[in-house]
Recover the amino acids of this structure.
């Protein structure tokens, strides 16, 4: 009985080490050891800002794909659900696992009214996990929304 | 169920997971995610040829026919011996197989290939031109390349291509008072002659010069890559046919490394194996040449280029998004160069912006060691690949070779 126990435990431990090492190596060799967020954290929204002041949804003109310049509209509401007009939005982002930012300088080129803004010049130069960050400064307050996109 | 049985079952499950994990990184099987990635690198995924709103005649077959003739015309040079084809030799992948281009003089950069450049937002290693036609005009007045002037070229068109020019662009201007050597170049005689012309004459000559570029561009945009063994392999694997004899085991191992641990697809992605972006990969400048700052210079240059999308010579009526949103003036651009396509890469030694690497093995060794950049910051990290793996990567790169095709208006010729 004791030998069978010991064997079973040894086997489990070995297998566990093997499985974990494999996963760990796979993660490490693809660059920085930054774990991907959970699946539920991905998508074009609605997504809430860091201190819950705003919610935003992205509306890309075409499905997001690497290597092409795209226009992405964003609709922003406040905590009460009202559209947020007169906001200044700074666009930033990058790939945390590859340690680089956006390859272009996208920016809001038009305020469309009703809490909607048009961001032009967005490009993702490769597939994978991208952070797409909007720093929103509105009369009511300032906050940051980070979208996780999978291209 | 006893404690031991439960433990044994967990162990077995974990072992199966571990073995699958290992198995997934070797052999013939591709995961759904990997297969999708391979398909994204195949020519079948290539989008339709993008339009060039800055060039009114880009898709005109007559313009392409004129452009092809101009491409081979050595009269478009200061000594009558240099044409575009001199360095961009169609029998050699539209390049010259030497480290630094030789026209009328010695250039400081490697000749770049032409195929697929219709999809590049920016041209040259440093991206200082934003259209194929603007690019073509650069070498024409560069003293070490064609070494001529735009007045000379306008006269060549008037002498030899008047009818074709008229069909496409309308009547040529009156050049009778325009000297045969005049242009905004460094050569004193030519610059003085250019300065002596009226504004109207300069505009007339520049208009013909621009149209020469647009015709050449109409030809060049049809030069594309044909299918390679890699494309055949992806097609076979996708349709579930036997792909076994299409790529060798070493080539497949190389492909796995390419999309995996070797990190190549960070920049060499998509059907043309390039993101068309600019990156510093720590390639040393040639000590005998002045330091070349790559995209740091190029981004600023394209924004003020005489022939860019915003210029009066551009046919674009809409905004110019590539110029509007590009990154300029940042230190990360210092000695960042355009990512070339890897299609047919094995046919295009030597490699890099000044032909610094003689062989693919030298290139792969560089990426593996990731030495620090002499100027700026290299984005490479050491890969720690073994000698066998580097050879496998090289074997895979060789599978990317295929024909160069020149499309006509109806399809592949």
């Amino acid at each position: 009985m004791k030998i069978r126990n010991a064997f079973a435990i040894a086997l489990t431990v070995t297998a566990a080490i093997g499985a974990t090492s494999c996963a760990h190596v796979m993660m490490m060799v693809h660059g920085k050891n930054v774990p991907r967020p959970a699946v539920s954290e991905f998508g074009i929204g609605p997504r809430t800002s860091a201190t819950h002041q705003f919610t935003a949804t992205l509306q890309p003109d075409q499905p997001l794909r690497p290597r092409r310049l795209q226009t992405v509209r964003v609709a922003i509401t406040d905590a009460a659900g009202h559209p947020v007009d007169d906001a200044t939005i700074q666009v930033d982002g990058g790939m945390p696992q590859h340690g680089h930012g956006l390859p272009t300088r996208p920016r809001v080129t038009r305020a469309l009214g009703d809490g909607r803004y048009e961001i032009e010049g967005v490009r993702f130069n490769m597939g994978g996990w991208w952070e797409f960050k909007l720093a929103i400064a509105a009369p009511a307050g300032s906050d940051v929304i980070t979208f996780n996109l999978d291209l | 169920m006893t404690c031991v049985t439960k433990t044994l079952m967990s162990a077995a499950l974990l072992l199966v997971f571990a073995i699958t994990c290992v198995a997934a990184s070797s052999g013939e099987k591709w995961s759904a995610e990997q297969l999708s990635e391979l398909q994204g690198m195949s020519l079948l995924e290539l989008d339709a040829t993008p339009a060039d709103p800055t060039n009114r005649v880009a898709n005109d077959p007559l313009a392409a026919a004129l452009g092809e003739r101009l491409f081979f015309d050595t009269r478009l040079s200061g000594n009558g011996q240099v044409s575009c084809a001199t360095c961009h030799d169609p029998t050699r992948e539209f390049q010259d197989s030497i480290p630094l281009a030789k026209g009328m003089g010695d250039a400081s950069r490697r000749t770049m290939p032409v195929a697929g450049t219709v999809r590049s937002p920016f041209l040259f290693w440093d991206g200082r031109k934003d259209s194929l036609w603007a690019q073509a005009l650069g070498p024409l007045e560069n003293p070490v390349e064609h070494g001529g002037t735009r007045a000379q070229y306008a006269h060549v068109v008037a002498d030899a291509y008047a009818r074709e020019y008229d069909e496409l662009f309308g009547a040529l201007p009156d050049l009778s008072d325009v000297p045969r050597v005049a242009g905004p170049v460094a050569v004193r005689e030519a610059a003085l002659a250019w300065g002596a012309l009226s504004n109207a004459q300069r505009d007339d000559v520049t208009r013909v010069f621009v149209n020469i570029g647009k015709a050449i561009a109409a030809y060049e945009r049809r030069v594309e890559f044909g299918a390679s063994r890699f494309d055949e392999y992806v097609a076979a694997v996708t349709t579930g046919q036997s792909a076994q004899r299409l790529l060798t085991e070493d080539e497949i191992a190389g492909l796995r490394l390419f999309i995996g641990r070797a990190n190549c697809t960070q920049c060499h992605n998509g059907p043309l194996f390039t993101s068309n972006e600019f990156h510093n990969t720590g390639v040393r400048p040639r000590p005998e040449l002045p330091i070349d700052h790559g995209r740091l210079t190029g981004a600023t240059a394209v924004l003020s280029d005489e022939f860019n999308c915003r210029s009066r010579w551009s046919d674009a009526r809409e905004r110019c998004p590539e110029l509007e949103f590009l990154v300029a003036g940042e230190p990360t651009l210092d000695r960042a160069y355009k990512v070339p396509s890897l299609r047919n890469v094995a046919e295009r030694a030597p490699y890099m912006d000044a032909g610094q690497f003689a062989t693919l093995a030298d290139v792969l060794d560089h990426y593996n060691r990731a030495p620090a950049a002499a100027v700026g910051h290299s984005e490479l990290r050491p890969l720690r690949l073994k000698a066998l793996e580097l050879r496998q990567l090289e074997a895979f790169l060789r599978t990317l070779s295929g024909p160069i095709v020149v499309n006509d208006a109806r399809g592949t010729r």
In short: Helices of chain A lie at 2-29. Strands of chain A lie at 47-48, 54-60, 70-78, 88-95, 100-101, 107-113, 116-122, 129-138, 141-150.
